[in-house]
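Encode chain A's predicted structure.
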Amino acid sequence: MTGIDMAQFNAFEEAIDFSFWKELCEKHGELHHYRRGEYFAYTGEAVKRVGWIVSGGFKHSLIDNSGRAKTVGFVFNDSVLANYISVMLDKKIPTDIIALEDSDVLVIPTSMIRERLMSDPTLHIRFLDALFEQAYGHVLNDYRSTPEQRYRQLLARYPRLFELVSLGEIATYLNISRRQLHRIRETVAGYTPDEEKFGN
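Encoded structure for chain A:
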């Protein structure tokens, strides 16, 4: 991926040294190419493989109780591709994982990661602590920050995201309506007309 470095998009991945994951994927992984819109994993399946993103990006998406698709997370190159709860507890994944653009991923069996974590209690505990801290921090941020502040944070940190996803997906990720998002964009200094082409 060129331009802005979008690795370690999630705070969780900044709290853990994922070199062990990358090393396992580089040593044992098989390189898979995913086209934009292609699924890495489907909601409700037991995830049997995980990966390391060599290039590209993916979104985590779900269908809410009203039947609407919502984007709940993003992950980009030089990062883990997985659902951590599925990895650790061998449970069905609650989201789809879909390529945002043509992407290359080194893929290994989920069991390799689970065995590595279970063999290292210190790493396992750090992993679980960071997962809990990220989830709790996300909830607190929704209360602490206004929608405009969350939008500004997103725009400032990852401007290229707006080239890859629609405004509707940005709105669902921020948990606001498209109308709210349009109003916010009109007041944000970093707004550019080029973003309009992603509004459909």
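The radius of gyration is 17 Å.
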